Amino acid sequence: MSRYTEKGGVTVLQILKSKAEKKKISAITCYDSSFARLIDETDIDIVLVGDSLGNVMLGYDSTISVTMDHMVHHVAAVSRVLKKPFLCADMPFLSYHLSPEQALQNAGRLVQEGGAQSVKLEGGEDVAEAIRRITAAGIPVMAHLGLTPQSVHAMGGYRIQGRGTDAADKLIEEARIVEAAGAYAIVLEMVPASVAKKVTEAVGIPTIGIGAGPDCDGQILVLQDMLGFDDGFNPKFLKKYANLAKTIQDSVSAYDKEVKSGTFPTADQSFKD
To answer: How does strand 46-49 pair with strand 86-90?
Structure first.
């Protein structure tokens, strides 16, 4: 019995059941233990340690530079403290493209070394065999269609996917392919709402949207984005639930001024003989 089951955590079967029961699924990214502890006290269903950590945590301008070692390191940090949400980990660029055997080996690292409960792959028919191989080994797989950031150069940038009848039909077909391969859910990123609705209706597994409208079975946002860490990042699909950039900057500035003026620390922050 896993520690998640013992503590009543979310399971893959509960996620699948949510679609049948028409219960929306909440998902959020997380990359470290500090935020994982806070998220664990909420009712969030899925935590994704995304390769977006390349942008959010490591300062890269894309996810392509993220390695397996980066992912294992951050997944392990989250898994050490996260107990309730279902934990999924991204497989980074070129960690599953060479062969199904390579995909299984790297998925195994994320589970065995990192403590993930599932992994996520970008792509459709091209990764179907990798999905089959990984799920055959007992590792649940979340698929990712629409805008796939690891293919941003081939797509010509961060552009909406699935526009037009042919593109929409292809997206639906790919969703059915990854479902047949064994995926338990599909992330739909930057897809027109009407197309995402059709995809959601065409498959029996949950769709998790980001910039894909309200008719997906669930939604995911990057934690730091929805907390307002970056004043300059304001894509159409993002709703900021806080403005922590200003809160953090004001707090650090206040500390800086008190240190330099000699008003911190005071007797209250000092030890007596």
So the answer is: parallel
Taking the C-alpha atoms of residue 28 and residue 47, their distance in angstroms, rounded to an integer, is 5
Catalytic residues: 189
Do 202 and 77 share a structural domain?
yes
Name which of 184, 182, 177 is nearest 15 in CA terms.
Answer: 184
CA-to-CA distance for 124 and 178, rounded, in angstroms?
6
Paired sense of beta strands 218-221 and 46-49, if any: unpaired
For residue range 160-207, list pLDDT tens digits in order: 888 999 999 999 999 999 999 999 999 999 999 999 999 999 999 999
DSSP state of 32: S
Range of the domain at 254: 244-273
CB 171 within 8 Å of CB 123: no
Same-domain status, 49 and 176: yes
For 253, residues 6+ apart whose C-beta sits below 8 A from its C-beta are none
Q: 193 and 258 in one domain? A: no
The residue among 152, 141, 143, 109 whose CA lies nearest residue 124 is 143
Element (H, E) at 53: helix 53-56
Packed helices 128-136 and 100-112: angle between N→C axes, nearest 10 degrees: 50
User: What residues have CB less than 8 Å from 19, skipping those under 6 apart?
Assistant: 204, 205, 206, 217
Q: Are 225 and 238 spatial neighbours (Cβ–Cβ below 8 Å)?
A: yes
Count up the domains in the chain and report the number: 2
Tell whether 180 and 86 lie within a shared domain. Answer: yes
pLDDT tens digits for range 61-113: 999 999 999 999 999 999 999 999 999 999 999 999 999 999 999 999 999 99
